[in-house]
């Protein structure tokens, strides 16, 4: 039997890689996408992976329960992956209410639509290591208490607990992946890794001279999106729903990640890096480091792509983009 999946946020980084993974496993893939006047740009990531004609896009928004219910009824997915969110931490101070409505309450909208229309379907929620915020343990696991530090993280804590609550209240097969930072050549340009690799490529090509960053002492546990979407799928193949940390277990400063990118093209980071106080955040998550032991033991999941390999892949992709882009 061909299985059917619905991915909210299919136009985002993870949505694109997850769609590619599910298609390779023979799934019929539907993706919820919000209507946009720039639909051609919106599907840029699916085009990059060469799968834009293999998925069916459904119009919808996480804030619109009636549309979500209709979609569940029409598509009748076996698996629902809720990846849609206002996902940029910095924007969440500028748009706290929108972030709460989409990243928080939006999860309840998807769960309600699922519970009322297709309660037998399996559900994945994209939880985040940002929920640990002001960390309560040096290495964070599924049992580490949360202390969110941004409106985004507060909304994700809500989304996480409503997922647990629907599992416990209604017996839904609802799992939550607490994913640490993961990146790729398809990462949005506003996030720090892609901002760095894009700037390095432009500097190398003579299109720019400097890179402006905020807090380069912050540390993150960075993995690759291609590895992390595999963990999402594995969670929904288990007999029992559960929560899992997905991480590499290694933490690196923004400064050292940046140095890897500059070194790859033979440039000196200190010749180009400028610290801009305006890019510091009202409250910072200084350090994250995850313990993926449960994912390894129960899902057989492990990260396979190192930070160095990933940053080099991203720089090469940005160099290629700037070779073909019009100046
Ligand atoms: P992303 O590239 O920013 O993608 C977000 C997706 O959500 C996009 O497809 C976006 O559509 C969609 N979206 C935003 N608002 C929406 C709304 N109101 N209704 C419907 N769709 C909406 O994020 P990502 O990196 O792929 O991350 C996927 C999920 O994992 C997110 O929930 C994120 O918060 C979470 N997460 C990410 C990481 C990470 O390091 N990447 C780590 C932990 C958790 P448009 O294309 O129209 O903007
Ligand atoms: O790349 P970032 O914007 O990612 P952040 O805030 O860690 O959030 C990402 O990962 C979360 C998982 O932990 C996801 F839930 C979330 O959706 C998103 O995908 O920033 C990383 C670090 C921060 O400490 C930030 O202050 O880099 C620091 N940074 C320093 N200069 C910068 C910059 N970040 C950005 N985006 N831009 C800068 O110029």
Q: Tell me the count of domains.
A: 2
Low-pLDDT ranges: none
Q: How many individual β-strands?
A: 13
CATH topology description of the largest domain: Rossmann fold
Helix-strand pattern: EHEHHEHEHHEHEEHEEEHEEHEHH
Q: What is the CATH superfamily of the largest domain?
A: NAD(P)-binding Rossmann-like Domain
> How much strand?
15-25%
Helical run tally: 12
Mean pLDDT: 97
Radius of gyration: 19 Å
> Could you say which structural class the secondary elements and strand pairing correspond to?
alpha/beta
According to CATH, what is the class of the largest domain? Alpha Beta
- What is the strand arrangement across the widest sheet? 3-2-1-4-5-6-11
Instruction: Sum up the overall morphology in one term.
Output: globular
- Ligand set: NADP nicotinamide-adenine-dinucleotide phosphate, ligand G4F
Quaternary state of this entry equals single chain
Helix content, binned percent? 40-55%
Give me the CATH architecture of the largest domain, please: 3-Layer(aba) Sandwich
* CA(first)-CA(last) distance: 50 Å
Report on the biggest sheet.
7 strands, parallel
């Amino acid at each position: 039997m061909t299985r059917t999946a619905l991915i909210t946020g299919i136009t985002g980084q993870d949505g694109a890689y997850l769609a590619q993974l599910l298609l390779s496993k023979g799934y019929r893939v539907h993706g919820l996408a919000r209507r946009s006047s720039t639909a051609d740009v919106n599907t840029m990531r699916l085009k990059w992976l060469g799968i834009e004609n293999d998925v069916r896009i459904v119009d919808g928004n996480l804030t619109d329960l009636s549309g979500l219910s209709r979609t569940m009824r029409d598509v009748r997915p076996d698996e629902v992956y809720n990846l849609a969110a206002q996902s940029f931490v910095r924007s969440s101070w500028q748009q706290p209410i929108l972030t709460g409505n989409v990243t928080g309450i939006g999860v309840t909208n998807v769960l309600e639509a699922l519970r009322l229309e297709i309660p037998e379907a399996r559900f994945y929620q994209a939880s985040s290591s940002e929920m640990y915020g002001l960390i309560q343990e040096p290495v964070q696991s599924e049992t580490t208490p949360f202390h969110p530090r941004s409106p985004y993280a507060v909304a994700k804590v809500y989304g996480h607990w409503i997922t647990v609550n629907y599992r416990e209240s209604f017996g839904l097969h609802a799992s939550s992946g607490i994913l640490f930072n993961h990146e790729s050549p398809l990462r949005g340009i506003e996030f720090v890794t892609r901002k760095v690799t894009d700037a390095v490529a432009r500097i190398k090509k003579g299109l720019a001279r400097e890179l402006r960053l905020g807090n380069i002492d912050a540390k993150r546990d960075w993995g690759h999106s291609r590895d992390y979407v595999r963990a999402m799928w594995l969670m929904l193949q288990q007999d029992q729903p559960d929560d899992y940390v997905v991480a590499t277990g290694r933490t690196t400063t923004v400064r050292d990640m940046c140095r890897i990118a500059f070194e790859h093209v033979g440039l000196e980071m200190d010749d180009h890096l400028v610290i801009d106080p305006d890019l510091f955040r009202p409250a910072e998550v200084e350090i994250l480091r995850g313990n993926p032991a449960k994912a390894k033991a129960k899902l057989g999941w492990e990260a396979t792509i190192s930070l160095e390999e990933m940053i080099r892949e991203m720089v090469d992709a940005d160099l290629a983009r700037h070779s073909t882009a019009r100046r």
